[in-house]
Write a structure and sequence with these properties.
Shape: elongated
Number of strands: 5
Strand order of the largest sheet: 3-4-5
Distance between the termini: 122 Å
Helix content: 40-55%
Strand content: 5-15%
Number of helices: 8
Mean pLDDT: 81
Length: about 220
């Protein structure tokens, strides 16, 4: 009786549920933890973009995803091969695209037209100044053949070649960068282009090989 009275005084008017409620509290905590994880997963699935370029710094043109966009539709819209588009974005054709995702659609460098203007005669004078006397006539012939002395011309497949001597940017980019030509637009300056062409001539053992054709091999 004394023990029973002590228990009643410890919890007057209430049954002692200390031991019975422990399993319930554990179950509730477990359920809450599961609910929080599930909630976090749902938020994460909506917050994470379906596509992100492997190298955003290398991308020169982005497309903001719109309703009903798919990888094949984006590829067709921007005239890019599907495999190329997927490679640029480091993804696969099964990756979901969400509205507003930034999709890289081009790695082609942006070529800005030169600000300064040059006359045809000025261009010819620049070539004569840059190239040694014994090479300048051949250099003038070559510049006329390649660009007709139009210093701002961009030609070739995928706009590969630039300026007076149609310098192939992607092929020579590495050594051009070391010589201070870090952007293709710089090759639209006639003096820069003529100097780069002379450097290329010398790099090839003082040969015109980079400009050879089936009918012209001096």
């Amino acid at each position: 009786m004394a023990e029973r009275g002590a228990l009643l005084r410890r919890c007057p008017g209430k049954p002692d549920r200390g031991f019975k409620s422990l399993p319930l509290r554990h179950r509730m905590r477990k359920l809450c933890a599961i609910a929080l994880v599930a909630s976090a997963c749902v938020v994460s699935s909506f917050a994470t973009p379906g596509a992100s370029p492997v190298s955003a710094a290398a991308c020169t043109q982005f497309h903001s995803a719109k309703p009903n966009d798919s990888w094949s539709r984006v590829a067709a819209r921007f005239n890019v091969r599907l495999r190329e588009l997927l490679s640029m974005n480091g993804t696969t054709s099964t990756t979901a695209i969400f509205i507003g995702d930034k999709i890289c659609v081009s790695l082609q460098p942006v070529i800005r037209p030169p600000v300064e203007k040059f006359t045809r005669q000025q261009v010819i004078s620049i070539i004569r100044e840059v190239w040694p006397d014994d090479l300048e006539e051949t250099a003038l012939f070559l510049a006329r053949r390649e660009s007709n002395y139009v210093y701002s011309v961009v030609g070739g497949t995928n706009n590969c070649c630039l300026g007076l001597f149609q310098m192939y940017w992607s092929v020579h980019q590495s050594w051009l960068s070391k010589s201070g030509i870090t952007e293709p637009s710089q090759l639209l300056d006639p003096r820069t282009n003529a100097e780069a062409a002379l450097a290329l001539y010398r790099r090839n053992g003082k040969s015109w090989r980079p400009w050879w054709t089936s009918s012209w091999r001096p």
